[in-house]
Each structure stands twice: as C-alpha cells, then as structure tokens.
Specification:
The protein is an alpha/beta fold. The protein has 14 helices and 30 strands. It is about 20% helix and about 20% strand. The strands form seven sheets. An eight-stranded parallel barrel has the order 13-14-15-16-19-20-21-22. Strands 23-24-25-30-27-28 form a six-stranded antiparallel sheet. Strands 1, 2, 3, 6 and 7 form a five-stranded antiparallel sheet that branches. β17 and β18 form a beta hairpin. α8 crosses α9, α8 runs antiparallel to α12 and α12 runs parallel beside α13.
C-alpha cells in the first residue's frame, strides 16, 4: 500500500467521512496526548501504516487522507497517562475501534491482550499491559453511505394505531424453512418474502428488533459463543452486528428496511446507550475506555478507579458529557436518516436522563430529543427503570414518549392467574393506565402494554410453569426474576392432561385478547401467537440455540389455529375503531344521550359502585365504550366457572351483537337483546358491538 497524502482534517464531522476524493477522520478525546490512525489490510489481520494525527481542534483529533476510499480498514491508538486512580486508562498497545465507525471487520477474540492491564498481575487493573491487542479485536471500516432508496417512505403509523411485535433478528429466521441457509439469522433472511408476508398477514404494524448494534458474543468465558444472544452488550452505536450480515455490505440492512416499509411495516430498534460492552474496571479496552475513559464513562467521585453504575453492567455511559451526548444523538439520527428506521426503544432509559445522580425530565438527553427536528418525529419508547438511586420512573418521561408499562404486565398476569384483589386495578390498565400517564396532556398511547417480553416467561410458559427453570444458563437457576405471576394450570411443564391443556389454552387466549383490547399501545412477543415455549427458562439471554430460535417446522395444527385466532383479534382491534384515540377517557357523558365515554359494569348489568371496586374477591369486569355512534361492550371473566351476566339495558330495543368469543365456541349467543342474561364462559373474553 502506498502512503496517502495527508493534510489537516476537519473537526466538524466525527468518524470517517468519504467525500469522493478522500476520507476525513475525526475522533474526540479530551485528555489524550497523542493519537495515531492505523491502517490495515482488507481482513484486518495485518497493520500496514500509521499516521500521527497532529491536528487537535477543541479536543477533536482529525486528519485527511487524500485518495482514501470506502472499505479502508482502520483503528486508533491513543496515548496518554495510565493512572486508573485518576480515571485515566490510556494504553497505545490497545487498538481501538472508531466510536463512529459504521462497519466492522474481524471478530473479537477473547485474549488477555485485549485488556489494558495484565490480567495475571495481583494488582489487577493497576498494572499495565504491553501486549498488542490488534490481532484480537475488530477494526473499523470506511463506508459509503450512498444508497438508492427509490420511493421509500416512512409508514408514519400513528402511535394510537400501532401494534408492536418484538423479535430477535437472528432467532426469528435461524430455523425458517423458506429462508436459504446462507441467509438464515441475518437481515437478508428477515427480508425474505415469506417472513415479511407472514408478519403483514398477522396484522402487526411494527417490528421491534432486539439490539442489532455490534455486541459481544462471549463476554464472560472464552469459547462460549452463546454467552450473549440478546445483544445487550453493545460496543458500537453505529456499526451493525457482523453476524447479522449474510454478505459484506451494510446495504443489507437498508434492503430489509426498504422492503418492510413497502409492506407498511415500521422498524423499531432496541438500543443500549446506557452502558457498553467494556463493562467495569476489569473489562477489556476496545474503544471508549482507551480513547478517553473519564469522558465516556461516569466515574465514582470518591475513587475514580471505579465507575458509577446505574445499569448493573459495570459502568454508566456518560451522556452528561456533551460529546458523549452528541455521539448518542448522532447515532440516533444516523439510523433514522441513513437507515430509515422509524423508532427506538431505550434500554434502561433513566440512565440517559440523569443529572449528577438523579433522574430528571430536564436532562440534556430528553431536551436534545425534544428539540431535534429529526428525532421529535420518531417513535421514542423508554424502558423506564434502571438499578440506580430513584431508578423506577414509570410515567415520568416527557410528553411524546411512550413507556413500557410493567404495572400492566403484572396486573394482567395476576388477574388471569386468578389472584384476588386485581379487578379494580384492571380497569385502569384496560383504559390506558391514566393513574400513571394522564398528566401534562400526555396521550393514551403512552402506555406500552405488554404481557410478555424477551425478558421473562413467554406466553406458553406463563401458563405452563410455576417456577423458572434456568439451569441450562449455568448460574444454578439464580438468574432471572422470581416474580413471574405465572400458574401452570395443574402440572409443571409439558402434559397430556386434557383439562390442564384446555385451561392453558383458554388463559393464553384470554391474556393476548385482553392485551389487544386494552387502550394504549400493545406489544406482543414473536412466537407467542403460536405458543412457542422456552421450556420454563425466563432469562435465556445466553441461549443461542433451538431453545430461543423459533422452530417454524414444529408449529402444529393446534398452534396454527391459535395464530389464526390472534390474527382475528388484531383485525377486530382495528375494525372496532375505538382504540385509535389519543386522549384519556373522562368517564362522563359525551352527548345528550347521557352515555359515558367509558363505563364499568358488573354481572348484574349495573355500573360499578364503590362497594364493587372494593370487593377483592371479584374476578370479572366489563367495560362499555360509547363513541356517539356505537357501543362496544367487553367482558373479562377470570373465574374458574361460568358467570351469569346481565347485559346493560339500552333504549330503542337495541341488540348486542357478539363479535368475539375467546373460547371460540363455548358462548351460546350471537345477537342478544339489551338487558338479557347470558352465560359467560370461564376464563374468557367476550365482546359485543352495537352500531346506532
């Protein structure tokens, strides 16, 4: 390779930017004393050249390489003090990826050379490693962002019309019989027509992918490539996970997004900006730690050798630093502008919204999102808790944000488990959780309603296991939550008892039906629609195998019937035209008829009285929604036996028309006069409609 002609770089745009004539490299480091740009061969196996970067403009180190082109492989070596007690961990023996690098080449090999210290030293991270890490770490690659998007447009589906489908990209197609072997588990595999057509057929509106940013596959133990399946150990916020690419081009992601958009499907990314895969003070030095440890991470003010951690993963990313905040914002805009994604779900979002140690709506991060002309029109979803002080912040995010609602999850699970004392709270959960979100003019869709997520039991296991069974994770069944609010219906795990199987089926249908007939934004997990099991494992983060992959060829006729039923409920949710509202109910008459926008009914055909709300033994409830031109009446019966139920009495001899029976056959009515008494099946949801 011939030496490139170099000149002073531009500090305005961080990362590696190709302008058609050459590449500008720019890197932020406030405490470095010297920075070198290292160039490698195409595979990243051989270092070819080094260029000292002499330009430092306001802590941005930059250099321009005339004639450099896309596909150039590079990394950085950053010089400075190695004083862990002062929060400084520079070590030029460690090759570092570009925080703005948009593509990586080469795999991370778990070797002691990737640590900034001598891992064999009794002094641990206070020691210093002279080993060169370059042979063992991925390198960054210059990319050309140009791409023919054609007439691609964001579907721009309103939140109030959205139904989210959470999926793990690799596991979704790893065993898909219609996807070619070489594309299984990749972006190209997910873009296969059989996959996209199925998701469109099901009726959901958005796919929320578990993290696709480049992440560690074997963080804890050498050789354990299944150690991180979910992907919550990002070490790049721009580059995609290499194993998710079937070829050598990141255009594969764009192809997938473009195809999903052509079918009216939105793409939402689960993003992990709260920490990185470098972990705590004993973690490897791959990027941020070696570039400027004290800028990129929040340090313990009492001992800067250690980190302040609100994530449980070793160290909190320091978005209170303006350059780190800029990195996060630039990453988000990149994925919207260059990759055309439609939204983000933020893992442990309170960590991003802290000032000093306290969560606040006035954080730089939330203000930056609110004013950003690109991001303020993008779906923003918070996981509203972390493990730091005051970390549980459900309902505390700014208007325009949606939030995962674990109160909804727990209440629905307990109600359909048959627990006492759940029915009164259910009314709030069904109607959008106004007790949590109805402030500062927030909309009803702010509540992301879910019964299951990647973390915890899936739907099948929720009705099949009383306890978690995580032994295969290698942590003596100590990992994963113990608060599952599950019930196995009478036998732990698999059974051929018809009574138990029937109960499990009825409750599974009832839970997903309730989810889809609740106000707010429903989120369901891929595979729940055909009762996929994880054999009682409620924390399969490390299971990159058939336990977590969707076994498409194992779907039986029974499973297909369940899927068809869920499709029917999704279709009904859209058809009823009562869930596409933004504002919360007031529980007051909306016109001269005197009917309320929403009312709650008992089995006696009367509205709930104070005594009814305080009856903890009650296991059934009904709502009646009135829109001015129609009534929708839904009964939720979590009792183990049938309930005699009187329908509300309406004027003009109006008849209630049955539009859904979750038991699919046990209801013996179709069109019923108002005021009639009917028999509601056990463990069921039934829905009626009257159009005026």
């Amino acid at each position: 390779m011939a030496n490139y002609k170099t000149s002073e770089g531009c500090s305005n745009q961080l990362g590696a930017t190709y302008d058609g004539k050459g590449v500008n490299f720019a890197l932020f480091s406030a405490h470095a004393e010297k920075v070198e740009l290292c160039l490698f061969n195409a595979s990243g196996s051989e270092e070819l050249e080094r260029y000292e970067i002499s330009t430092n403009d306001n802590n941005i180190w930059s250099i321009y390489l005339e004639g450099a082109k896309p596909d150039l492989v590079y990394g950085y070596r950053v010089y400075g003090p190695y004083k862990p007690q002062e929060g400084l961990r520079f070590n030029p023996n460690k090759l570092l990826i570009d925080p703005y690098g948009k593509k990586l080449v080469g795999k991370l090999i778990w070797n002691k050379a990737i640590f900034g210290y001598d891992i064999d030293s009794p002094d641990q991270d206070l020691s210093y490693s002279n080993l060169d890490s370059a042979p063992y770490v991925p390198k960054s690659v210059v990319v050309d962002d140009s791409y023919d998007w054609g007439e691609d447009k964001h579907p721009n589906i309103p939140f109030e019309d959205s139904i989210i489908y959470e999926a793990q990209l690799r596991g979704y197609t790893k065993l898909h019989p219609s996807v070619p072997d070489a594309k299984r588990g990749t972006f190209a595999g997910f873009a296969h027509s059989s996959v996209i057509n199925y998701i469109k057929w099901l009726g959901v509106t958005a796919v929320e992918f578990l993290p696709i940013h480049a992440f560690f596959g074997n963080r804890h133990k050498k050789g354990f490539v299944t150690d991180n399946y979910w992907g919550y150990e990002s070490f790049s916020f721009f580059a995609p996970e290499q194993s998710y690419l079937s070829g050598n081009s990141i255009d594969e992601i764009k192809d997938m997004v473009k195809k999903m958009h052509s079918h009216g499907l939105e793409v939402i990314l689960d993003v992990v900006y709260n920490h990185t895969g470098e972990g705590n003070h004993l973690g490897p030095t791959l990027c941020y730690r070696g570039i400027d440890n004290s800028s990129y991470y929040i340090l313990n003010p009492d001992n800067k050798r250690y980190y302040y951690d609100t994530t449980g993963c070793g160290a909190s990313f320091n978005v209170q630093n303006p350059f780190c905040l800029r990195l996060v914002m630039d990453s988000l805009r990149y994925w919207v502008e260059q990759m055309h994604v439609d939204g983000f779900r933020f893992d442990l979002a309170p960590t991003l919204s802290r000032q000093q140690k306290n969560f606040t709506q006035q954080s730089g991060f939330m203000y930056a999102v609110a004013q950003d002309p690109i991001l303020r029109n993008t779906k923003m979803i918070a996981e509203p808790w972390d493990v730091g002080y005051g970390g549980y912040q459900l309902g505390a995010f700014l208007p325009g944000w949606a939030e995962w609602n674990d109160k909804y999850r727990d209440n629905l699970r307990r109600f359909w488990k048959g627990d006492v004392g759940q029915t009164a709270e259910l009314a709030s959960r069904l109607s959008g959780s106004s007790d949590v979100f109805n402030y500062n003019n927030r909309d009803i869709w702010s509540s992301i309603n879910f019964v299951t997520a990647h973390d915890g039991f899936n739907l099948c296991d929720l009705v099949s296991y009383n306890s978690k069974h995580n032994q295969s994770n290698g942590e003596n069944n100590n990992d994963g939550t113990n608060s599952n609010w599950s019930w196995n219906s009478g036998a732990e795990g698999g059974t051929d008892n018809p009574a138990i199987e029937k109960n499990r089926l009825l409750r599974s249908k009832a839970m997903l039906t309730t989810l889809l007939l609740s106000f707010g934004t429903p989120m369901m997990v891929a595979g729940d629609e055909f009762l996929r099991t994880q054999m009682g494992n409620n924390n399969p983060y490390c299971q990159d195998n058939a336990l977590t992959w969707i076994t498409w060829e194992g779907i039986t006729t029974k499973h297909k019937q369940f899927t068809s039923y869920i499709k029917q409920v999704i279709k009904l949710r859209k058809k009823l035209k009562i869930f596409d509202r933004c504002k919360f109910f007031k529980g007051k008459p909306i016109d001269k008829t005197g009917f309320k926008d929403i009312a709650w009914y008992t089995e006696a055909g009367k509205e709930f009285a104070t005594s009814d709300w305080h009856n903890g033994e009650r296991r059934s409830i009904a709502y009646c929604v009135y829109t001015g031109n129609k009534f929708v009446y839904a009964v939720f019966n979590a009792d183990y036996q049938r309930q005699e139920w009187k329908l509300p009495l309406l004027p003009d001899k109006l008849k209630w028309n049955l539009v859904l029976d979750s038991t699919e056959g046990e209801a013996d009515f179709v069109s019923v006069s108002s005021g009639s008494v009917i028999s509601i099946p056990a463990w069921s949801v039934v829905v009626f409609e009257i159009k005026k």
